[in-house]
Write a structure and sequence with these properties.
124 residues; mainly beta; Jelly Rolls; six-stranded antiparallel sheet; 1 helix; globular
């Protein structure tokens, strides 16, 4: 991690078993990212990322469904989230990702404090 960049496969990331039939792949740690959080979570059939909010940490989160069919639940509102779906959630809202399908759902989660100082580029 001293050449200014890292390239890793999701399959090579360190794994951590979590609650709710989830396996976390530690992408931030594996890539050496220091300015925002990111992890990949494999949610087994019937599993879920527990409901939570990020108001204490002031984190805005984005969930990107890479594989499978998930359900995004934001403040009690359930929305289908098949592969290719992106969901952004403000810090104060309750969020949960659930897998009602028969196959594992893989979700990339990216987060950063709203107060991080990010400045949008002029073209986007």
């Amino acid at each position: 991690m001293d050449g200014g960049y890292e390239i890793v496969s999701i399959e090579d990331l360190e794994e951590m078993e979590g609650s709710g039939n989830c396996t976390w792949r530690l992408a931030r740690k594996g890539l050496g990212v220091g300015s925002f959080g990111m992890n990949v979570v494999d949610i087994g059939p019937g599993g879920e990322i527990p409901a939570h909010d990020e108001s204490e940490r002031d984190h805005e989160e984005v969930f990107i469904v890479i594989e499978g069919d998930a359900v995004a639940i934001v403040d009690g509102s359930e929305q289908p989230a098949p592969a290719g779906t992106m969901v952004r959630v403000s810090p104060q809202l309750q969020r949960q990702i659930r897998n009602d399908g028969d196959a594992t759902a893989r979700v990339l989660i990216i987060s950063a404090p709203v107060t991080s100082g990010y400045e949008p580029m002029g073209w986007g």
